[in-house]
Amino acid sequence: MELSRRDFLKASGLGVGGAFLLGAIKPDKALAGPPQALPLKKKIGETTSICPYCGVGCGFVIDSADGKVLNVEGDPDHPINIGGACAKGAALKQVGADNPWRLSKVLYRAPNATKFEEKSWDWAITEIAERIKSTRDANFTEKDSKGNIVNRTEAIANLGGAALDNEECYLLSKMMRGLGLVYIEHQARI
Known about the structure:
single chain; alpha+beta; 5 helices; about 25% strand
C-alpha cells in the first residue's frame, strides 16, 4: 500500500483527535507547557551566585555546610539559564578550594628529569618572571621592515584557560599587551 504525504497527515490527525476523544491523552496535561524544574535537594546553607566563566551570567545555587561546598547546581529561578548549565558551569564544584584533587604546591620537573620535585611559590614566580623577561628581551621588535614602530614580541603567546573569570582575563590581557605580546587568545573564543 502506497501512502502519500497528504494521507499520512490525515491519518495522523485522525489518530491524535481520536486519542483526545477517547480520553487516552488528557488535554490539560498535553498542553500544560514545559515541565517545571524539580525542587532542590535538602536545604543546607544555600547561596545564589553567578557563574564566573563568561559574560552570559548564568545563576547557580551553592549548597554548603561547615565551610565546605557540598553541591553546585543551576538556579531554576534564574531568568538566564533557568537551572541549566554548560560544561564549565556544571563543573564549578571541581575548581573549588576544598577539592581534594586540587594541587596546592608547585611541582617542577627539570629538563630531561623523570620525577617532579616540590618548589616554593617564591622560586616559581621568580623563575617564570626571569624566563619571560629573557625571552622578551631576546626577541623584541621595535620597528618593522617599513620603519613603523611596533614594540612587540612574537616569541611568546598567551592562552587563557577555562578557570579564569572575566576580571582575570581582562587583567591578564592588559599585562600581556603591556609586554608587547601579539598572540593573545582565550579558550572561550576558540
